[in-house]
Fold these 4 entries.
Entry 1:
Amino acid sequence: MYVFFYFFCSKVVRLSIAQVLTVISQKQKAALREAYKKKKYLPLDLRPKKTRAIRRRLTKHQASLKTEREKKKELYFPLRKYAIKV
């Protein structure tokens, strides 16, 4: 009786339970990712896990935006090109 009980509390059983639960949670998360693929907003647990500073950083689009004044300055005073005759 004692040996039988020990088997059910053994490392093998705990490991197999953990493996099953891992597979179940992975499938659930994959299904959620598929469901939210076309949505505008993602739940927090599906968003990429990055550092806090990286998450708060400007996106590439936001960083590349220019003010009207900058646009006009570049338009009216373009970078001068020089050719040197050898």
Entry 2:
Amino acid sequence: MTGIEEAMARLEAYMQGLVESPVLWLSAPARHLLSAGGKRLRAALVFRAAQLGGRPIAPQTVYAAAAVELVHAASLVHDDLIDQSPHRRGQPTIHEKWHHDAAVLVGDYLFALAARAIALTGEIRVLEAIAEAAVAICEGEISTVDQVEPLEVALESYRLKIGRKTASLFGAAGRIGAICGGAAEETVAAMGAFGYALGMAFQIVDDVLDYVGDEHLLGKPAGGDLRRGLITLPLIYAVAHDDSDGLLRRAVARFGEPFPPEEFAAVLQRVQNSSGPRLAREEALRYYEQALKHLQVVTEPEQRSPLEEIARRVVERTY
């Protein structure tokens, strides 16, 4: 077992133990969420960044990675509730399997457990980084992208939202790992910037897959964002470049109203067949390239290569 594999195993064991509670209405949904799997990309980023300091992965770093993953998990619970999503990773969401109130409280519970994990790191900078990311996540969740044109205005709103909602925690993961590994401040800053750019790419790819991904791999039907009236990058670019008859503009103008099935199918197909998904993927690749530039501070190829591999996984993923 490699150092990373061992650290990941310690992370899973720690989180599974941490969510246990005599109150089964909390522990059972929390176990359900953690057991549904997930990529643990944020934890992997923490561990790889920690290795830049030349030290073995310490328990402090495992606690920090757990805090990052628990904040992420908490945000998913609340996000699913807000969006009324019935499935997550092919499994029923917590508000569907249990209750609306359970989802609210389990999300809060996971945030509280993240704070407990942070306390075990004994590092105020870890607390600062995660607190800043948690605030940004809330700001991003409440922010709305409510127009598809003018194009530059729509792009700015979208990038601001995903920067807060998703990229902020990736950035925190990079910073935290470097801090726990004892890296120089220049490296800490570079890993934060690397993580942030990677998070932007991650969310854009996620939004593309919502339109054109394999439904079996994703565990949910295509067009979930469209069905919920969410404006994301593929739709923004589709309106800008492939909507001469105004079909997409008319659909966006009626977001919030029930979607007749035949109209939904036509709008979904238009976006899928448009240049929107391709242009969005190209933007994700630009963020990927931006992320790689921040790795120039990592001069040892054996340390840089695993971080490059994480970045590749983000932009090449299919689910």
Entry 3:
Amino acid sequence: MSRAKQTLLAAGGGIVLAVVFAAAMVAWNAHGAATPEDKAAENSAERSASVSSASAGRPAVAVATTVAREMLFEERLSIAGSVLAKRFALVSARVPGTLDQVFVDAGDVVEAGTTKLFQTDSLKLEQAAAIARQQLTVAECSVREKQALLEKTQVALEQALADLTRYRQLREQNAIAQQIVEHQAAQCRQLETDVRHTQSLIELAQAQLEQARLNYRIAQKDLSDSLVTAPISGRVSLRLKEPGEMAAAGTPVVRIDDGSLVELSVFVPAEYYDRVQPGATKLRARVGSVLLTDLPVTFKSPTVESRLRTFQVKALVDAPPAEVVPGALAQVELILTARQGVGVPGAAVVQRDGQSVVFTVGPDGTARRKAVELGLETDGWREIRRGVSAGAAVISMGQSMVDEGTAVRVVEEAGR
């Protein structure tokens, strides 16, 4: 090659290198001067392009959808409780003594004021009543005796006064001595005193008669109280003593429960105290196979139990089913809050980038991510306070396999 050609090639190569270097510098300066917004847009475009290219490169994900719907959401507190008898009686002896008989056993049906329950010391009390009756008879006789004595004294006084009148007439005629008149006058005064004394004896006898009557009534009452009848209607739930045992006042012999009116009782943690309002708060309960609904709270304890930090709540159940009996276990749900809202299946809500989201299916057959604000949860459904409206179909199966823009294929629709 000639020297002139070599010189020309060298010059051309240098020009090419210079052009390439200049282009590289321009590109570097342009990249370094880009704003953060430009970078974010570029990254988003790259991700979208990546997702689109990935979606285009793989088959659509099979999903199932469920329609969001209006429903009732409740905040519930589940607690184990008990069924209690609203009316019950621990029946003890009115008159202390040995139990003669116990007429009922556990499970027996009793009627208020009619059914005999037990009796204490009947023989002793019968004898005491008989003695009191005799004392009453004696007091009545004593009154009649004093009244007869009064009549006798009054007759004697009348006769003495008549004699005194005649003696005075005879004295005026000097037919008798003055001493006889004075003696007769003294006898009249004595008889007048006897009348007053007899009247006092009658008053005393009458008071003693009234006392005897009261004693007889007490003895009769004690005898009557020795036989105890049922104070309320219901069933005997406990028989606590047997014949021959001592029955003291205040010591129960039997317990009666009235099963026609029962109440549910639960103990609620203290932090819910201000959220439970009698008459407004409701509860539902399951007792065996029986479901009791819409029972308003009828009682809230005025204080919190200091050891367990709980308070008692009760609800009445009038005419309960046969299975709802005192002592039964109740699974209670206390309804703290209840409101209507838009609900979706709980499984449809997933976490993405620290947010709660659901996925819907766009018109182009791709997944669309919706950020949502959650509320209450009821029976596996989540309340959506904001982000999805009623009637929207959300992905409820396969949602963990999709993201924004993922191609999907709906294989099942629920709630349409």
Entry 4:
Amino acid sequence: MVSAYDELPRTPANFVALSPLRYLERAAYIYPNQASIIHGKRQISWKETYQRCCQFASQLKQLGIEKNDTVSVLLPNIPAMIEAHFAVPMAGAVLNTLNTRLDAKTIAFMLEHAESKVLLVDPEFVNLAREALSLIPNQHIIVIDVADTEYEGENQFLGSFEYEEWIAQGDINFSWHLPEDEWDAISLNYTSGTTGNPKGVVYHHRGAYLNAASNILACGMKPRAVYLWTLPLFHCNGWCFAWSIAASGGTNICLRKVDPELVMQLIAAHKVDYFCGAPIVLSMILNLPKEKQTNFDHHVEVMVAGAAPPVAIIEGMRNMGINVNHVYGLTETYGPSALCASQSGWNELSIAEQAQLHSRQGVPYPLQDSMRVLDPETMEPVPNDGQTMGEIMFRGNIVMKGYLKNPKATQEAFAGGWFHTGDLAVCHPDGYAKITDRSKDIIISGGENISSLEVEDVLYKHPAVLTAAVVAKPDARWQEVPCAFIELKMGTTATPEEIIAHCQKELARFKVPKDVVITEIPKTSTGKLQKFILREWAKERAENV
């Protein structure tokens, strides 16, 4: 029997596709003269940003760009990068932001795999783009050069058009449309930092809209917020914050690269409210000479992901007037999808106790439907005992559509109706999840499981350690033993023997690193440690013994 409730119709009056494009339109209407983008001495209002995006989109249509065509960009955090997040989907196309720190071969793979039709290039990356394009000579890609006034190097050009001249010819009254279906693709982001070819992660308009709003709820973002772009916009579309700032009617402070001294200056000059990044960004700030550090007279919030913020970072940031929020997510979940939400009373605890609580990945993001720690064999929740290990899994609208042209990987990722993260975790009695390790990062030594994160936590307690990464090193007797790679803080010294002695005070004997290497640790552009490289280094060290 059909219910009268079910007979009520879905019409254009009561159902509209969700898309972050509406955030831009609203900001331009409500805050036309509010600064949308500040880049050096240049300032662009929301009205101007909307008009420029219309021009950009209309010019893409003039180039023959159609629905689901891919437009790639090789840009730092400059105005054109922010504009691309709106203009490309306004044209019905899919935005592909390329990691500027990748090699030409990988860039070429992405351009070819995505079937990119257009490529926007900053002068700093012209040589990289030229080499990548030379590897795919049979693919016709229209190149648009983006000359940036804040770039201090030589302006090299590769393409047929210069961005500012090109969009100036566009239509400020371009009639764009919302997607026919909010499930339509809005962006394509490639995974990085792993072996093999990267996978293309597809986002849809609905997920982008919801995670942008979820960011606002998660960090309590105020209207007309000021946001500093320390996080690369090519990483998960800047965790969707370009769309969040439009929803807030706020101001984007652009930053070509992370210079800790400049970060301090911009936060003070523009009264920045929010910024994001990996703990390495905060470490860079804290390692500035004291005379270049600033204690801000206004409140600043920072979201940190990639690794739990250690005690020294939480305390150091707080002394500067910056509150640290630990978030967790993956490329496949539009960036942050979980938050270690603070509870009343936490601030009354010692800094060490607070750091322990904040080291957890926490609970679902406000608009993420579900996050669970499940037994991957039974797909049942593990008990909230802080000991039983399972895998973090997500379900909801803020999960990717899937992997482009890779149905097998998509099916595996969504097995059992959940997105499998591959992150092993426990769930504490208060319901907060804490990662114990990536499944591939567990070290099995003499039949004992060793969490690399547990060893790293101890290493970070050493006063000279800036960055620590622990991986398995092959061993003839124990099969595997812990091998630690260490970066030291500027102006400090420590020997491998001293590091090992430090660990012996706090760890069971079999968990203590048997090999310590003091070196620069390879990282992705967002500060994520590239453990697959370290595993190769450890293997080489074992072979050379």
